[in-house]
Specification:
The protein has 320 residues and is an alpha/beta fold. The chain folds into three domains: 93 residues, Winged helix-like DNA-binding domain superfamily/Winged helix DNA-binding domain (Arc Repressor Mutant, subunit A, Orthogonal Bundle), CATH 1.10.10; 112 residues, Periplasmic binding protein-like II (D-Maltodextrin-Binding Protein, domain 2, 3-Layer(aba) Sandwich), CATH 3.40.190; 99 residues, Periplasmic binding protein-like II (D-Maltodextrin-Binding Protein, domain 2, 3-Layer(aba) Sandwich). The chain has 13 helices and 13 strands. Strands 8-12-7-11-9-10 form a six-stranded mixed beta sheet. Helix 3 crosses helix 4.
Length: 320
Amino acid sequence: MSWPWTSSAAPNAIVITIKQLEAFLWSAELGGMEEASVRLHTTQSAVSKRMQELESALNVQLFDRTRRRAQLTPQGQEVVPLARELLHLRSRIMDVAAATRIAPRTLRLGVTELTALTWLPQLVQRVRGSHPHVTLEPIVDASGLLINRLRSMHLDIAIVPDAFRDAAFDTVPLDSVEYAWMCSPSYVPAVASMKLQELQGYTIIAQLHGSGLGQIMSRWLSDNQVSIDSALSSSNMTAVASLTLSGMGISYLPRKIFESLTSTGQLQNIKTTPAIPRIPYVLMYRKGTADDFLRFVTSVATDTCDFTKMIPGYFAGRAS
């Protein structure tokens, strides 16, 4: 493949921006420009414009737009790891610039299971890389219990679903997560869609007992006049997923990180009308406690947040 920067005159003519690379990488990672616009907190038209500018600068087509859903071209597939590496280096440079000399301290960071299973390792790596003298104490628990710990000053930061607005906390938006109704084909064979009210005839495996996600879902179902009479409940996503895989009922799970199980037929998606709204997640800390270090961690969390990729090995036995 011949890239446009191979000629001696090309390097001076090509201008590639970080925003263009972010638009391209998130469109590729999330499967579309609409999804990328949500992740980047901008409009779909802005993402599309950045993509066009990048393709024009490179003089190559990165997405095949002749198909119903945009797919990467061979050139686009080559650019993905390069863009990811460049953006990672940008983040490391920003970390060095943001790092300050501080006294040894402990950061008590509360997260739910979803964060622990997706991007928590990257967050910890970034913070430790810039502040090696800081001791990190990640605490994984139900979001309601994390908020109680934050309120009682036993946590410095909590990353939870946006269900706990409180005047005592500063709240920083992170990202939203697409949830989907899922079940084992052995529980509801060959059903691709149904009206939301039809769920009332099935066992629903819900995340309750202090779960912010459960609170958001309960309110949404109530607003849509849906009453769940038969239910199993847990605040633990792993338990909910295990019960669902075992054919015990229908649950709502993050669509992206369970794609490996839906693609192999171990789980199936059930589309409802209306669909589950995207669930916003936020970072929270007590008002008046943010110093330079907490602001740095907040910035890194905003940049690192990615709920679409589960750590390798989760449910490996089930997915094999």
